[in-house]
Design brief:
The protein has 119 residues and is of the alpha+beta class. The protein contains 3 helices and 5 strands, in the order αβββααββ. 26% of the residues lie in helices and 21% in strands. α2 crosses α3. The radius of gyration is 14 Å and the shape is globular.
Amino acid sequence: MAGEPQADCLFCKIVSGDVPATVVRETETVVAFRDINPQAPTHILVIPRVHHPDAASLAAAEPAIAADLLREAGEIAAAEKIDGSGYRIVFNTGSGAGQTVFHAHAHLLGGRGLQWPPG
């Protein structure tokens, strides 16, 4: 069921503490941790504590939590000191877009130039 932890979801296991991660920030609604395969000097995943398969599903079901996720990404960017130079927040939706974990999450990227359009 949407919103409920999924036994086979890596990010649900990180939220529950069953899988270790380098957590940089936790709130009542989100957990943020460093990506294990960083694509930029700063690459942090910001995930909701509730399980939804992608960003659109999260926003439709729980818009306040989607807003929390975006607000926290901005707070983390400031804490990581990339807010002045610029940063990118990316939501991959679907395997064709590169989503490999089907639990809504944002990639916070910064610390280097980020070209447009992305790869």
